[in-house]
Specification:
With about 140 residues, this protein is mostly helical. The protein has a single domain, classed as Zincin-like (2-Layer Sandwich), CATH 3.30.2010. Helices cover about 55% and strands about 10% of the residues. A three-stranded mixed sheet has the order 1-3-2. The longest helix is centred in the last third of the chain and has 20 residues.
């Protein structure tokens, strides 16, 4: 899949990933797409050779922004989605759940966006995974 096609899916899945009532609360965040995590990022995150990232939130969580956040030149936070690992995860998911590859890809993109936006709202990894487990039980 081309980068342009993948970015279009990210744009289409955002409203499905994050309930509309939260859209107005997401401010100063740029969404990026990269092929995969760099070696430097893999080391920084403590990933082993067989681990990867689907996405990464980088910035100041909304709950940690004080009164002076944004005064002066504040760069936007970023949410990066890693295309190649997401595509690999989607292929495995399509087989596991008997989905088309496109259905699986949209699902993985949607879940990755939700996961990283949860970090933006201040949830740590344990809290995000706990909420994901509860969502998946439904």
């Amino acid at each position: 899949m081309t980068r342009e096609e993948f970015e279009k899916l990210v744009e289409e899945e955002f409203p499905r990933a994050v309930p509309e009532k939260f859209h107005h609360l997401i401010k100063n965040v740029g969404f990026l797409v990269e092929d995969e995590p760099s070696l430097e990022l893999r080391k920084q995150e403590g990933l082993s050779d067989n681990e990867t990232l689907l996405g990464l939130y980088h910035g100041v969580p909304a709950v940690a922004r004080g009164d002076f956040y944004g005064v002066g030149g504040t760069l936007p936070d970023t949410i990066t989605l890693f295309q190649l690992p997401i595509e690999e995860e989607a292929k495995a998911l399509s087989v596991r759940l008997n989905l088309t590859e496109e259905e699986a890809l949209c699902r993985v993109i949607r879940e990755t966006i939700w996961h990283e936006v949860a970090h933006y709202f201040g949830y740590d990894e344990h809290q995000v995974r706990d909420r994901e487990d509860k969502r998946n039980e439904k």
